[in-house]
Amino acid sequence: MSATPPETLPMFPLSMVLFPGVSVPLNVFEDRYRALVHHLLRIEDPAQRLFGSVAIREGYEVGDHGSQSLYRVGCLLQLTEAEARPDGGFDIVAVGRSRIRVEELRTSGDFPVARVTDLGDRSDRVPAELVDRARATFTAYRAAVAAVRSDPFSGRLPQDPLFLSWTLAALAPLPMAERQSLLEAEDTSERLILVIDLLRQELRAMNVIPSLPATEVARTRWSPN
Description:
By secondary structure, this protein is an alpha+beta fold. About 30% of the residues lie in helices and about 25% in strands. It folds into two domains: about 10-120, LON domain-like (Archaeosine Trna-guanine Transglycosylase, Chain: A, domain 4, Roll), CATH 2.30.130.40; about 130-220, no CATH class.
């Protein structure tokens, strides 16, 4: 899943937090991001069609003013699918590869470019008990959601603790700040502990207000690539 980003990377800020291992469809219609996709498609090796994304803390994805404030920690993405539309835009799919930190962002060119640092994931020995607790907590949350509406999830959870931590982070129905905290967690154990606590908070809220969760979840597809 990991990939080493080049020192300078095209950037596509979004109003969402993306995670390694997550596949995300994007509608590309602004001129600057059309130019970004054209740039990526000129790269012969598909494995090198890399760009970055960080979540927008304040501002918007589109318009003359655009994003006013960005988080610094984001995700390295690989373009995996691109379909040109008659209007000149693109429908694309990208998959998260690894974490990055933006050191400097330049917006004077055809599309935003950033100098980035690869963060990767610090290797840690994840206790089996923690993995089991994370899986059980998510299973309880999934059952609670299915009791009040159709199950929004599909597939089986991965066995690998790192993949599991990213999958649960992507599926957890959380506001942006909490999702960003999961992305910035230093290692797999810390991320699993955070997501367990956050899911338990959601379960407690659902017991009080059965119509929860109000937040739409599972908008993105998880991919083990």
